[in-house]
């Protein structure tokens, strides 16, 4: 097995010079670096990633925090992040909060992350004031995905949830629906944070723009799950006059709504139209109309933005107008979020109301 000493002897330099040359430090002349690289290539010498990181005081690890890894959105984002980190020579340390307050307090504190990771990605993780203060005190690069909570100096990658909800509701209005229900997130659910507020706002804005006053009896809160959508729809149907269409805050809720309607002897879309948000992997199979959001792309872009200040050799993370992470004197200045586009995907679950 080739060692660094062998490269040093062939190149006629010290092992320290070989180390500096292979790490790309500026203290090595261009001629010496070319000689070292040629010797390393001739001997097929490969630098140990762990040794290189140790020498540079880095862990080579990025922490990724998610509320619940079992949900489609979070799993899709984490898979994209992990793939990009792997290609860039970094490892991923996953923290799954799982709704456990004790885990949350332990993870979102400096003692848990200090000297264990080089950077942090928060995926739709709602933060409290002490959390923000603790993360800021770490003085590590970070990126937030799909969250309304900001950490000073950290970029955010997300979609426009208000616009997505407006588009979904407007689709139902354009079909002729006027009695449109909304299944929203439960504010007590740790996954709801600001998303449920933004999507409800977009729903109500679309109704008002069409001259329709939002009806509180058509707005039901529940968890962002299939079971949550099922229970919320059952509650809607028990309130009296049923809606002709349902806008669910996520596809899993919409799937639960479709199940509840079927169990009640109603047909989708003949009796009730249903639309969600996400474009879940099963949305096409179920014929669910939805607002497609680029979940994997959010993870990929966040990882690209994050790795630049760490010195990773990646593609230009700021191509296309993506803002660079701030630092230094700008740390208290809000960083504009990177908003990725969504699109309406019309399938079999939406149609004009029967009386239209």
Write a structural description.
The strands form 2 sheets. Strands 2-1-3-4-5-11 form a 6-stranded parallel beta sheet, covered by helices on one side. Strands 7-6-8-9-10-12 form a 6-stranded mixed beta sheet, with helices on both faces. The protein has 14 helices and 12 strands. Helix 9 runs parallel beside helix 10. Helices cover 41% and strands 15% of the residues. It has 356 residues and is α/β, with parallel strands linked by helices. The longest helix is centred in the N-terminal third of the chain and has 16 residues. About 6% of the residues have low confidence.
SSE inventory with pairings:
Layout: H1 4-11, H2 15-22, H3 30-42, H4 49-55, E1 61-66, H5 72-87, E2 91-96, H6 101-107, H7 110-113, E3 119-123, H8 129-138, E4 142-145, E5 156-159, H9 161-174, E6 180-185, H10 195-209, E7 219-222, H11 226-238, E8 245-248, H12 251-263, E9 273-278, H13 283-286, E10 289-292, H14 295-307, E11 338-340, E12 343-345
Parallel strand pairs: 1-2, 1-3, 3-4, 4-5, 5-11, 6-7, 6-8, 8-9, 9-10
Antiparallel strand pairs: 10-12
Helix pairs in contact: 1-2, 1-3, 2-3, 5-14, 9-10, 11-12
Tell me, rounded to a whole number, the average pLDDT. 84
User: H/E order of the elements?
Assistant: HHHHEHEHHEHEEHEHEHEHEHEHEE
**How many strand units?**
12
- Overall body shape: elongated
Indicate the percent of residues in helices: 40-55%
Strand content: 15-25%
* Poorly predicted parts: 313-333
Number of helices: 14
Structural class by secondary-structure content: alpha/beta
Major pleated sheet: 6 strands, parallel
Instruction: Name the strands of the widest sheet in spatial order.
Output: 2-1-3-4-5-11
The end-to-end span amounts to: 77 Å
Radius of gyration: 25 Å
């Amino acid at each position: 097995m080739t060692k660094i000493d062998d490269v040093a002897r062939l190149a006629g330099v010290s092992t320290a010079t070989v180390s500096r040359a292979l790490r790309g430090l500026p203290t090595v002349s261009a001629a010496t670096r070319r000689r070292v690289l040629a010797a390393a290539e001739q001997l097929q010498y490969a630098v140990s990633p762990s040794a290189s990181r140790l020498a540079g005081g880095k862990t080579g690890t990025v922490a990724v925090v998610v509320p619940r890894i079992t949900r489609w959105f979070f799993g899709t984002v984490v898979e994209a992040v992990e793939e990009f980190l792997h290609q860039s020579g970094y490892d991923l340390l996953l923290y799954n909060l799982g709704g456990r307050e004790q885990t949350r307090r332990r993870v979102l504190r400096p003692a848990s992350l200090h000297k264990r990771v080089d950077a942090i990605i928060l995926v739709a993780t709602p933060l409290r004031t002490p959390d923000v203060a603790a993360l800021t005190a770490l003085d590590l690069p970070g990126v937030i995905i799909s969250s309304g909570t900001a950490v000073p100096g950290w970029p955010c990658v997300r979609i426009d949830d208000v616009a997505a909800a407006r588009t979904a509701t407007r689709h139902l209005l354009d079909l002729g629906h006027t009695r449109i229900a909304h299944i929203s997130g439960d504010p007590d659910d740790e996954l709801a944070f600001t998303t449920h507020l933004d999507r409800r706002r977009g729903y109500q804005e679309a109704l008002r723009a069409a001259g329709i006053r939002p009806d509180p009896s058509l707005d039901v809160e529940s968890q962002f799950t299939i079971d949550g959508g099922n229970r919320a729809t059952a509650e809607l149907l028990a309130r009296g006059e049923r809606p002709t269409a349902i806008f669910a805050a996520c596809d899993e809720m919409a799937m639960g709504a479709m199940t509840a309607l079927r169990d009640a002897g109603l047909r989708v879309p003949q009796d009730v139209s249903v639309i969600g948000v996400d474009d879940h992997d099963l949305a096409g199979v179920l014929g669910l109309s939805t607002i497609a959001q680029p979940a994997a792309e959010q993870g990929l872009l966040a990882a690209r933005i994050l790795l630049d200040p760490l010195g990773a050799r990646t593609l230009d993370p700021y191509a296309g107008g993506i803002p660079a992470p701030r630092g230094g004197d700008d740390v208290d200045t809000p960083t504009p979020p990177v908003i990725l586009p969504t699109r309406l995907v019309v399938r079999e679950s939406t149609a004009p109301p029967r009386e239209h």
